[in-house]
Amino acid sequence: MSRISVFSAPFLLGFESFEERIDRLARSADGYPPYNIERTAEPDGAERFIISIAVAGFAENELEVMTEDNQLSIRGKQKDEPGREFLHRGIAARQFQRTFLLADGMIVKDATLNHGMLVIALERPRVTKLARRIDIRSL
Which helix (H) or strand (E) segment is 36 a member of? Predict the structure, then answer.
């Protein structure tokens, strides 16, 4: 049984890669680490987003924030110290990857780590609508 995609409509030209990205995001979704997303709208029409991710126990050099191909990826990998012996280990040295699909025009402003919270600031500037007349040539 094949599934029908909304992106296969004949009037959606050039959107094939979006379906692939959405499928990839759906496969990678799990509950760790927990996160919040906040949005504020500016009077000029711009939008600002704050993604807060709980990364307690991770140092700055154990986290990576990257954007590529309209995707924001956050990775965390803790290193086990070979000389440590745990009698009880309730806090696992767990790696993670959290991915967000970004709309065209989104800008990642910065990322800060403070008290176990990784905060990533994004902005979508107001986009001016552009209309253009296309001249028709006769052959």
Answer: strand 35-41
- The tokens 């552009």 sit on which residue? 130
Report the phi/psi class of residue 57: left, alpha or beta, with left for phi > 0 and alpha for psi in -120 to 50: left
Helices and strands in the chain, H and E counts = 1, 7
Contact 98, 111 (CB under 8 A): no
pLDDT tens, residue by residue, 38-75: 999 989 889 999 999 999 889 999 999 999 988 999 99
Contact 96, 75 (CB under 8 A): yes
The tokens describing 81, both together, are 């110290």
Which range among 50-59, 93-102, 115-124 shows the weakest confidence by mean pLDDT? Answer: 93-102
Average pLDDT of 3-11? Answer: 67
Note the pTM of the prediction, 2 decimals: 0.73
* 72 and 65 Cβ atoms separated by less than 8 Å: yes
Alpha-carbon distances of 112 from 24, 60, 105, 108, 129, rounded to whole Å: 26, 9, 22, 12, 33
